[in-house]
């Protein structure tokens, strides 16, 4: 391990704690936006990883093949406790909700007729947008400190939301551009230091 | 017969595991095609029921695959279909994470991490806006979303409570 030069020691949660934390995310996150839940839980509440690590992990998890939230769980789990941590993260986020899904499927014939249930779920989904938006606003504040990252962020948003271009294309175009600019900036900072 | 169905589930979802790029929506159309047209596991109505159910279930939206497996071959089918969709890509990402850790403090990795932050910010904002556009309830949905965003940003309120309140407001207003 070459982590000896990390300046601030971080808490290292147990494998059981990793599994429990990801199970909690998996079981309590409705209406999409699981990444918002993960950010709130692991960056803000528990401080297991930094916001920067989380956001770069998120972008990577979304641009690589595989189920995004599972990718992200593997990513965070690995950073916390290596291979076993990655396994606990993935199992935690998949297995408990899987049993809930199967149970709900078995009950479905009674559930699908209820108007009230449908309305309540729509309300839950609307509130869940807040989680996603909170993460987006925090990330935007980081990106908006300099003009180029702000431009990259705005272009990404326009391409995805207004132009509805496929995510893969957008990331394939914006990520190398943004990384190249970050590389030049880091090199300049390194040269002047 | 059951083994043939289990084999079909593996053959359909294993390769799809690598195609789930960008939000999981990309493979839903193919799951539909395979389940209804190619393998005739179910009809359109049954597929839509399973899809709706996968949206209101907690956890990853990809649990649609679990439900298809459950429909096709019961509990064994559910487990097998889940393993087929989640395992192959997980192994790939795990390999990537290991590689990443090895080169963590090199300038290139730092540039990649810094460069991805604004891209991620744009993606999350676009995803939030898309969710809002799709939300049912019009102004009620926008108000609930705005209120929950503010509550989550400026208080230490439990996120689960926020969701419960959202459901409660809709129940009182529209139920």
Automatic annotation (TrEMBL), chain A:
Annotated keywords: Cell membrane, Membrane, Transmembrane, Transmembrane helix
Signal peptide (UniProt feature, chain positions): none
Membrane topology: Multi-pass membrane protein
Gene Ontology molecular function, alphabetical: chromate transmembrane transporter activity
Transmembrane segments: 12-34, 54-78, 90-111, 117-135, 147-163
InterPro entries tied to this protein: CHR_Transporter, Chromate_transpt
Homology family: Belongs to the chromate ion transporter (CHR) (TC 2.A.51) family.
Protein name: Chromate transporter
Protein's organism: Xylophilus rhododendri
Taxonomic path: Bacteria, Pseudomonadati, Pseudomonadota, Betaproteobacteria, Burkholderiales
UniProtKB/TrEMBL annotation, chain B:
Family (UniProt): Belongs to the chromate ion transporter (CHR) (TC 2.A.51) family.
UniProt signal peptide: none
A Pfam family this chain is assigned to: Chromate_transp
Domain of life the protein comes from: Bacteria
Location(s) in or outside the cell: Cell membrane
Membrane topology category: Multi-pass membrane protein
Alphabetized UniProt keyword annotations: Cell membrane, Membrane, Transmembrane, Transmembrane helix
Protein name per the record: Chromate transporter
An annotated GO cellular component: plasma membrane
One GO MF term: chromate transmembrane transporter activity
Regions crossing the membrane: 68-96, 108-131, 151-174
Keyword Nucleotide-binding part of the UniProt annotation: no
Record-linked InterPro entries: CHR_Transporter, Chromate_transpt
Principal location class: membrane
Organism: Xylophilus rhododendri
């Amino acid at each position: 391990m070459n982590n000896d030069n990390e300046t601030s020691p971080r808490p290292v949660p147990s494998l059981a704690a990793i599994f429990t934390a990801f199970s909690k995310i998996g079981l309590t996150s409705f209406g999409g936006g699981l990444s918002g839940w993960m950010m709130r839980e692991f960056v803000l509440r528990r401080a297991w990883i930094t916001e920067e690590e989380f956001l770069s992990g998120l972008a990577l998890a979304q641009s690589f093949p595989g189920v995004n939230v599972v990718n992200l769980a593997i990513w965070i789990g690995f950073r916390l406790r290596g291979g076993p941590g990655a396994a606990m993260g993935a199992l935690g986020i998949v297995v408990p909700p899987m049993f809930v899904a199967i149970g709900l499927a078995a009950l479905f014939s009674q559930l699908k007729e209820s108007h009230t249930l449908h309305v309540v779920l729509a309300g839950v989904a609307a509130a869940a947008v807040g989680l996603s938006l909170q993460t987006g606003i925090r990330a935007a504040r980081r990106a908006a400190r300099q003009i180029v990252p702000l431009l990259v962020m705005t272009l990404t948003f326009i391409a995805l939301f207004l132009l509805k271009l496929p995510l893969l294309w957008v990331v394939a175009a914006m990520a190398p551009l943004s990384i190249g600019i970050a590389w030049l900036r880091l090199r300049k900072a390194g040269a002047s230091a | 017969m059951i083994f043939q169905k289990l084999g079909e589930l593996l053959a359909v979802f294993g390769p799809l595991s690598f195609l789930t790029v960008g939000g999981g929506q990309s493979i839903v159309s193919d799951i539909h095609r395979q389940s209804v047209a190619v393998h005739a596991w179910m009809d359109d109505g049954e597929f839509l029921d399973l899809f709706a159910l996968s949206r209101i279930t907690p956890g990853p939206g990809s649990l649609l695959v679990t439900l298809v497996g459950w429909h096709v071959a019961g509990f064994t089918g559910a487990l097998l279909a889940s393993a087929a969709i989640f395992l192959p890509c997980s192994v790939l990402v795990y390999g990537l994470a290991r590689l990443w850790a090895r080169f963590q403090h090199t300038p290139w990795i730092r540039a990649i991490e810094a460069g991805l932050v604004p891209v991620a910010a744009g993606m999350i904002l676009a995803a939030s806006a898309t969710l809002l556009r799709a939300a049912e309830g019009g102004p009620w949905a926008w108000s609930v979303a705005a209120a929950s965003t503010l509550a989550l940003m400026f208080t230490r309120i439990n996120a689960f409570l926020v969701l419960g309140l959202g459901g409660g407001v809709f129940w009182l207003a529209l139920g």
